[in-house]
Every structure is written in C-alpha cells, then in structure tokens.
Design goal:
There is one protein chain. The chain has about 60 residues and is an all-alpha fold. It has a domain of about 30 residues. About 80% of the residues lie in helices and about 0% in strands. Helix 2 runs antiparallel to helix 3. It is rod-shaped, with a radius of gyration of 20 Å.
Length: about 60
C-alpha cells in the first residue's frame, strides 16, 4: 500500500459496516426464530424443536 491510499481512508465507513453487519445478524436471527416457531406450531413438535425455538427467541431478544 502506498501512503496516498492510507491518507484517503474514510473514517465513516467502519460504523456503516458495523451497522450493516448488525442488521444482517438481526434479520438472520429473526428468520431462524420465525422458522423455529413455525416448526413448533406445525404439530408434532418435539422437545428439541421447542428448546431450539426458545433459544432462538432468547438470542433474538
């Protein structure tokens, strides 16, 4: 890398990347929690499915 490239660094990019990463994480967690809840309500839910749904909901909160 040259010193010119380092001097042109935009300090606002890191917070934006962090915000986008948290948004993706929240979206993925929500999808997993909804799918686990759907599987639990579909009937015939085992204790493992209910436990997984509870863990997903707790992680989302």
């Amino acid at each position: 890398m040259t010193s010119g490239v380092l001097g042109e660094r935009d300090p606002g990019l890191q917070p934006e990347r962090t915000r986008l990463a948290w948004r993706r994480t929240t979206l993925a967690s929500t999808v997993v929690a909804v799918l686990a809840g759907k599987a639990g309500l579909a009937g015939g839910a085992s204790a493992g499915v209910l436990a997984a749904g509870a863990v997903c909901c707790a992680g989302w909160v």
